Amino acid sequence: MSVDLLERVQRRATKMIRGLEHLSYEERLRELGLFSLEKTRLPGDLLAAFQYLKGAYRKDGENIFEKACCDRTKSNGFKLREGRL
Question: Is the dihedral of CA 49, 51, 53, 58 positive or negative?
Answer without folding.
Answer: negative
